[in-house]
Amino acid sequence: MSEFNQYVNYSVQGNLATLSMCHAPVNTLSYELRCAIDHYLDAAEQDEQVKVVLICSSLKAFSAGADITEFGSEKSFAEPSLPSLCNRIDSFPKWVIAKVSAYALGGGLELALAADQRIAEAGSRLGLPEVNLGILPGAGGTQRLPRIIPMATAAKMMCDGKPISAEQALELGLIETVFESQEQANEAVLTLAESSKNVEPINMFEQSFTVSEDDEQALRAYQEQQSRRWYGQKSPVAIVEAVREGMKLSLQAGLALERKLFDECANSFQARALQHAFFAEKEAWKVPGISSADASLEIQEVAIIGSGLMGCGIAINFLLAGIKTRLLDVNAEALKKARAYITKTIESNRDKGRINAAKCEASLAALATVSDYQELANTDLVIEAVFEDISVKKSVFAELDRHCKPSAILASNTSTLDLNEIAEVCSRPENVIGLHFFSPANIMKLLEVVRTERTSASVLASCLQLAKTIKKTAVTVGVCYGFVGNRMVAPYSREAFRMVLEGVKPSEVDSALREFGMAMGPIEMADMAGIDVGCMAALANQDEWQGEESYQALQFALREQGRLGQKTGAGVYQYPEGKKQEDPQVQALIAEISENLSIKQREISKEEIVQRCILSMANEGMRILEEGIALRSGDIDVIYLNGYGFPRWRGGPMQYIDELGLENTQTSLVKLQKSLGEYGERWFKPADLLNELSESQSSLKSYRKS
To answer: 252 exposed, middle or buried (CB, 10 Å; 0-12, 13-18, 19+)?
Structure first.
């Protein structure tokens, strides 16, 4: 028995057998746990005294689902496989009740769906999030869920990948009871067991289901509504197909269809990309030489310098996390506007049900607006978010060094400037770090944590811990122009604006990149961020492009005309009544610049647009890896997935070229280098690391700078 009871606690009381999973930490349905459940199902089936089987958990959670570390291994589908186990539970000759606590996700919910009845703890979450890994539920979820709740609702639950509450599950009929305490749970189980005494267990294999025209129409409407959001994605479309077609079949045939579609998705590049993203986000928190024990600095009070939109956005993160926050600005009117903006934003969160009234009130009470650096004497962390000018930032850090306590962490939100140089004005450079938030800072998940040459382990670890507190996805990077994100976006933007000068309409560039999967095209992104911001970023790196007159020539010309993008109603595009349109005046300006620079106009295919933008970005990523600015290729992907709208189903720019093949990437860059003449020779030379890994036929995932 000892082989199995380390995974399942089995007991029998009267006619009730209890299989309580105890596979720490979250009952992932590993091969060993599946074997244990199967073993005790044998025991319950053979025991004539047992009439009802309860499947539950001895841990806090019911089950987090399949063991993702088994994916691709022999254990993944070794018998009893999860589909086989669920099928056995469904057709089990005795009643089976699943008692869900905390959460039942993925395979965990599929296990519960196979039971005859389900009860759930109040506040627990039930979901099938497989779509986030590029696959679909593969143990009966696409077939059993729509046989229990409305078909379109089941499809939405799987395609969204977001869990629902126990209370919502009760309303849908997914569960029979919500319990508040163990006593209520016991009572519910006894009631269900008593009511099932003289009734045959529910065996979905033996039941027939009909699909009404209303059900069909609801599913069609949902798919049409989501078609734009799902553009290019495989798994949500497969889920809808599994539901629609499977419901017309017997359960056995529906499960066969599910298996076929599951295998197609599981073997796709999208599944590999999404699973890469999943693991990369977990790995990004790990920094060699840094442990959780290093996070020794308590951060109970923070201060933000600068009350613009960025400063306000940063402050909102801390306020919503319950951290006392001071917002400093020497301009009293600016502080007044900032408080009004923060209040409106937090109250909007309350009105939309994202936070309750008590949290709203506590968050607003935690805000203090100040105008004197002396009022920052007791803050644990100060984040500077002033104008992107190194002399301005140095003066702010000199003030912070004078007024903040010795243990205070001094952080900059700079997006491009040299943090090592900024740290030099402080008497405690080991306390200086970069915390690069992305706009809007209270919404965007990404946080680049920039380690200077002298940032201490305790400061870095404490900031990473804080990032979790404010629910950010943090990636540790080194110091260089633009760090990782903005350094790589520079060649991406460069090629987009260069191709406009070569004859492609701005809308064609944007359309090609959106079709690739980007959330926004690079030209419209420039208009949104501000043409002046783009020019400022280019000037900060002008040593890299001196002699290239076409470099962001259109943006500089637009700035001269006061066309700064959406904020002025005109940039590359014009925005009458807020609607984006091509502008004939800009087309004329483009033609003039191209003629002055002797750039020949020509037709450029969508394929070339995507290649030049994406491969130039990834090629810069190779240089970043080679220099050790990023710890691993997955970190770069995490940055681009969470901060720059790169399609998650492509895994990030580095995963994209890994999937494309490094040798193929190198060949494409060389082809562009030769075909684009002098311009190509300058900008499309493959990075040394790309050549090295291509020649050795190595993958990016395995690369670590020695």
So the answer is: exposed
